């Protein structure tokens, strides 16, 4: 290497230099591997020559589609890869929901070193169509729907190549600040997200608020299914083994869907899930056409390669439980389930049994984590060996739209509270009247 360098606030400017005949580029934020610091002469003397990180914000669907291969390569290498960061998931959501929620358009932040996609954050702006005064909210793609049709993805985060988390997070926050928005809401970030670790690089970080969203219960399958059982309480372990023995004796059938019968399994899932919720007087998520359309699209895209799992527990030809989820790397995410009764057997908990049988099969395939995703139902708690916490990050700019949005939200909460009080008072007065008549 010939020529010299100039040290400038953690940035090394390299001018007119060559390394083995190749042009040299600006080295930014070179960290000394020995002393783990930027302010080290060792880091400068041995700094590798790398291309600068370039930020490009994609607002056009065609431009997003054009980097599909680069996105897939980044996703395969990223330590933060999760099911809802897969291109298929994101693109499918945009296809189904964008006409309703994506009026402000895409804001896909991509970070490049030369031709290599080093990082990506899939965002969009909601509430920004012409003629509306609603606040422009910057969100993750696949969030922000109305409650009755929301997808509820967990582990949304910044995709990045190994070793690029710090540089990508810092550049991403600067890009976020340059986008025009009134409010920002990032739902269900892992607490370990590089975006949270480098939040101070967000120029408005003092206005940002981080709130807990609860945890994801996880079953650790490292070492196989039998080893997992030893991590449970003695009472839960005994019950688990009892349920498995009952299944063997009662003739129940546990199967995983193939491409040929996946639609039938999915229909069973919908039937069982909806039956439970309608019995409680609630509509159930599959009553929402867009929600169901979104998942049928994933079914078509992911069943063949084993990415999507549909597992069914049946007895005497009748589906009793269907589990639905996704495999990402060596982790399975249990997204949804439908549970009915198993008549003619002494199986106490068919839902728990189905999960145990699926754990056993997936552990044999090399899956080492079985993630129940966010929620605290009793069956999840009983089968859990570890947790991962998720948070929500919010920020509000001092704009007229943001202020109006805040006032409208406050008025909406007040109206809902008063409506509940009126309904409760009406119910009480009717009850008192009936008591008087009696």
CATH topology of the largest domain: Aminopeptidase
| Mean of residue pLDDT values | 85
Largest sheet: 13 strands, mixed
Strand pairing plus helix content: what structural class? Answer: alpha+beta
Helices and strands, with pairings:
Elements: E1 5-8, E2 11-14, E3 18-19, E4 22-23, E5 27-28, H1 41-45, E6 54-58, H2 61-66, H3 68-77, H4 87-101, E7 106-113, E8 116-126, E9 137-140, E10 159-160, H5 165-178, E11 183-190, H6 194-197, E12 209-220, H7 225-230, H8 234-250, E13 253-256, H9 262-279, H10 289-302, E14 308-315, E15 318-328, E16 331-339, H11 350-364, E17 369-371, H12 378-383, E18 386-396, H13 400-437
Parallel strand pairs: 9-11, 16-17
Antiparallel strand pairs: 1-2, 2-5, 3-4, 6-7, 7-8, 8-9, 8-10, 11-18, 12-17, 12-18, 13-14, 14-15, 15-16
Helix pairs in contact: 4-10, 8-11
Description:
The N and C termini lie far apart (99 Å). The strands form three sheets. Strands 6, 7, 8, 9, 10, 11, 12, 13, 14, 15, 16, 17 and 18 form a 13-stranded mixed β-sheet that branches. 38% of the residues lie in helices and 25% in strands. The radius of gyration is 26 Å and the shape is globular. It is built from 13 helices and 18 strands. Strand 15 and strand 16 form a beta hairpin. It folds into three domains: 41 residues, no CATH class; 154 residues, Aminopeptidase (3-Layer(aba) Sandwich), CATH 3.40.630; 171 residues, Aminopeptidase (3-Layer(aba) Sandwich), CATH 3.40.630.30. Helix 8 packs across helix 11. The chain is an alpha+beta fold. The N terminus and C terminus are likely disordered. The longest helix has 38 residues.
